[in-house]
# Entry
Amino acid sequence: MIPIVAIVGRPNVGKSTLFNRLAGTQTAIVHDEPGVTRDRHYADVHIFSRTFTLIDTGGFDPGDTDAIGRGIARHVRAAVDEADVVICVLDGLGPPTAADAAAIRLLRQADKPVIYLANRLDNERLAREATELYALGVVPIAVSALHGRGMAEFGEALLAALPPVDAGAETSEAEVVPRLALIGRPNAGKSSLLNRLSGAERSLVDDRPGTTRDPVDARVDYKGDAYVVVDTAGIRRRSKVEAGIESASVMQSLRSIARADVVAILVDAAEGLAEQDARLLGLVSDRARPIVVGLNKMDLLDAAQRKRALEQAKSQLHFAPWAPIVPFSNKTGEGIGQLMKAVRQAFTEYSQRVTTSQLNTFLQAIVEQKPPPASGPRPPRLFFMTQAQASPPVFVVMCSNAEAIKDAYRRFLANQIRQTFGFNSVPLVIRYKNRRRNE
# Structure
């Protein structure tokens, strides 16, 4: 299971700057004005030799009594409850405040591993003079999130605090059972599908949305194939996400995506794919997981409505045309066999390996047929190709002048890989690496 690390602290102490440094992106907005971050930001991070999900929270100030301030405080508490490790960022340039003291009291009550950072200490002199924070009863690590100072010491502390890697997670190929995560908006039929597959009421079903709070894992056998099915809480638009319990449920659902081998997003066919479904698919695609789209409640639609539902789903999935769309009905059982067949096929593709010799024969034929278009005095050249890993499939192309390879040609090569080797429902990761002279 991928650990969750939450960054907390009062407003304007550099939490988002630290988030951006660890994530290697500029996802979180950084501004001198306090309170810029209101929603949580998420990023899957691989740093200090470990992979974890990083959460940037809004500024925690229990004295803020307006609706937004109260909402931020609730989200911070939910993030702390869900996290495996908490990073508490303090301002190393000023005296501790009442908000700092309140945040530390909250963290002590949570009984979670906490790493305290005194931020904005850009040099040794400032670090030596930053002694006022000791009055809070903590010994923070002196860092500068902006300039990277103190990151090595912070990294050692983080590695010590993270839960150990689960050695039992590695299994032989014969023992692997696909993990299928069911995601989607509330009341899309996730729990009903799990119950139908397992032949028992493994998950509570109710017409009211939001019945499922925690992911429910169930091992099921369907027509001779074994699966671990994870029923997750329905994920709504962030503006609709309620405080406390539902916030934690959303984080659990995001974690389930990272743990899954295949993700099935279920949609009420009458309502169609919405913007939030597209966001969910983006999260799945970012994590390079296979996607199967299930259009549920087809028994409620006539022939014309079914056709419109399929056309609308295909239109909404223009950014992921490789994802299969399967109409089905939990109530009648129609299409469930086709849905699970698509899941099994997606898992096969997800774990598939292609030999280097096959890839290079393929690449040579592609380059002869359609080389990368020339751009500038140094046209890019593709030399050879290999598959670096499966689950998810990652390919590396050794080339020259990689930055000159246009997006259209990258899409063309990805589509050719799909057509040739059968990666029809899996996001492909293709990295272009400039070849050095000695290679």
